[in-house]
Design goal:
nine-stranded mixed beta sheet; 2 domains; 26% helix; 17 helices; globular; single chain; alpha/beta; TIM Barrel; 574 residues
Amino acid sequence: MKRLIDCAMGREKCDLVVKNVRVFNVFTGKCERGDVAVADGRIVAIGKGFRAKKTYFGKGRYLLPGFIDSHIHIESSMLSPEAWASLAVPRGTTGIVADPHEIVNVCGVAGAEYMKEAFSRLGIGGVCPIDVYLQLPSCVPATPFETSGAVIDGTETAREIGRDLFFGLGEMMNFPAVIGGDPDVLKKIEATLALHKPVDGHAPEVSGNALCAYRCAGVLTDHESITDAECLEKIARGMFVQVRCGSSTNNLADAARIVNGYNFRRFILCSDDKNAKDLSSRGHLDDALRRLVAAGVPAKYAIAMATVNIAECYRMEDVGAIAPRYFADMVLVDDLKDFCVSAVFKRGVLVAEDKKPLFETDMRYLPETVRGTVHIKPVTKDSFRIVCKGGKLRVIDILPHGLYTVESFLPAPVGVLDIAGKDLCKLAVVERHHATGNIGLGLIRGYGLKGGAMGISVAHDSHNLVVIGDSDEAMARTVALLEQMGGGMAVVSADGEDSFPLDIAGLMSSAPVEEVVARTGELQERARALGIKDCYETFMTLAFLSLAVIPKIKLTDKGLFDLDKFSFVPLEEA
């Protein structure tokens, strides 16, 4: 403490002075021109005349607090933690609230331990370039209506949440169980709150008394609000609303309509799910900031949504602002419109410059606990055959540019279903953790795929194999490719086949960033060539078709699931 005071008063040299910058103050919404002095990783003063061991010349640029992502699944990038950090940190991200929900559903708590260890091995100048606030996934599995690689009940949650490994409890997707007062689910929340740790939410279309009940459980945030009225109601009931800028879901423009000078402190930014290509080409939270400002949100509100709002929401100590005693997590940008990042400091150490990391990212931590995770019973083309009795077939229709689905019905023939010449595809979810042989079958309309099949071992949230196609042979071959690789992405058509392995739990690749971006891009192009419509993200939309906690109709390895009814429904009805 004395050294910080002495540095602030000029009695001792600071470790670093960032000179000639426009310091954005998240508390006042104004900029102050001057120098920023740093000692022992903390900001000690803003002004002039400081002595320093090192000087960085800001050249009149804007200095902002480091950006924090309030909710992200790293696994959705398909990048290793090291590769992900090499893209996100140079874009200004210095902290993330990460929910390793995907890898924990595959590998159990060992998956979370892997994520934390991989990030912690990054470093430069004695500091890790990013703070990782790791959440213990609350829903493993997301519902009891699917097969996951692990099960974490209330008793195990109560034991694990006390570890320093976990910052809080990840998104509580099983909101019907919370509202219904399920004892095991409430045990998870109570154990978390007893330790004064935060509980993240997931509550699409929850309102009225049900929302009040959800809040009574202590749930702090929500990133699944659909309408303006829903966002405003959740804020009115004391929640923080997370605004997403992801690859498949983006509601920045919607939020721009309702953010104002009073409620902006209750909005926080997140990416949730963002693929490697978008991270590489568009950026991370810098992308969200420029889009918000372009949509009409004042820059001072947008910056708060990426920094101090998140810190205060989660009670993060001494981050989210540029002020004395706050950690020197700082981002230098050219302006407050495009947010082009030129330098990033973590605890006063320069960790990225000119969109390039200055820390080592080539080394990969890859323990056996996250490898060899695909175990299935053999499948053939007959595994995907649908035999009808002449009733009506339930069909999944995906709403454009999102994850929500509705159902419709078609008359069913008598005998083996032939979908040739129709705007239909078969959808299959193949259990891949315990070789149970479970295969859920469904029909999907409007995806656009013709003349083959495609599949991926990323299938939210239990991450079985999900395959779509109009050919049983191509679907069987796709599954075979996924099994041979130990998980990955695959496309099969008359023009040939292509695949890319995801060797980390069947979710992520240990390959370099450039290879992941290039190869996943090539697979996406091959899939798009089969006719998939532009309103759907080829593989990521497919990966969400098994997520049974997002309305309305989804497919798990155990069959079609209707969230409104919260029960299974048959493919064919009389």
